[in-house]
Amino acid sequence: MEEAIHELASDLTQRTPAAIILFGPPGSGKGTQAKLLKAAMEIPHISTGDMLRERIASGDELGLRVKDLMQAGRLVPDEAVNQLVADRIAQPDCRRGFILDGYPRTLLQAAVLDRLLAERGYRHLVIHLKVDYTKIITRIAGRRVCPVCGTLYNLTSNPPRQPEVCDMDGARLVIRDDDRESVIRERLEAYERQTRPLLEHYRGRHSELHEVDGSDGGPEEIFERIRSLLKLQ
Prior knowledge:
The chain has helices at residues 2-13, 30-41, 48-58, 61-71, 78-89, 107-120, 133-141, 181-195, 197-204, 219-230; strands spanning 18-23, 45-47, 97-101, 123-130, 143-145, 152-154, 208-213. By secondary structure, it is of the alpha/beta class.
């Protein structure tokens, strides 16, 4: 596995810097695969969800504005998310490429991202994780997160060594408000309504778009599918 990761990093970093867009419904495993890609390629993992949660925790103006929307499973206004992403990818550590997790989610966001990437000379590389919705609801319902270090667990597929306690720092694990079943269903409906059309957008732009089965297998097995597809380029 380690050798395969180094091969992937070597292959992709020798090309034009890529914006790797992880695309899929909530609970499809985008965050986990983003972390694996980050380790492989040594480029930033940019999660709009994480950035927004940080703003909520800080209690700043944007955080207060989006807190209720996120807790209800609704999408944050495009202009707020677009600005967060534009500011982040302008940072020096993104010059060699970056991984986007949870963005874009609407056609308007995609149009803004297209412009930002064109201005900076990045190519699109889209990975669509396909997962059955029933499995998503089951998967997210068992998800827990460490409130201290942010490590994600799943009670079925990736449980902590000690029940409900983080392996890293011993903190008590919690359920995020946006991981509750009623919120999950709302998020899936929003995804179906607004985000799935992005697949056609990227197909129409002749982007590098790969579809990966994310329903079965552990995180490393799914990562191996991604790695194999990227090696075809």
